[in-house]
Amino acid sequence: MSEHEHSVFSDKQFAQVEAYVHDIQRLVGLGNWKLHVTNHAPDKQDAYAQSDIGEVGMDCYLSFAQDFLELDPTQQRETILHEMMHMWLQHLFGDYELSLSHDAAVLLRRQAERVVDGLACAMAPLLPLPKWT
User: Fold this and answer.
1) CA-CA distance, 132 to 45, in Å (whole number)?
2) Each residue's pLDDT tens digit, 24-56
């Protein structure tokens, strides 16, 4: 099987998504992060996108679901921004979660999702919409 059989996007779509993601990355002050846009679906089956933040340094892999491009541009922008807000929260929480009990870590992740959603919702209208062709 070729790599393209498992790809989420065509080569043209991938180039457009990757360029847009890096534009938004710079606009929200995350230009110092090494952000890798992947062309395979997230591990989470119910997610439109997923950010996987490396354990060391400021390194993140961003993947998208097959149906991401079916979202309207407003939802696409907010989804991308949501994943980037996880990168910002990594600065705040870092490895603290590892020192917490299981229940406290679950609560921290739940609260972090609420914060990420709120920030993405508030900031998204300030950013340009994607223009896919």
Assistant:
1) 24
2) 999 999 999 999 999 999 988 899 999 999 877
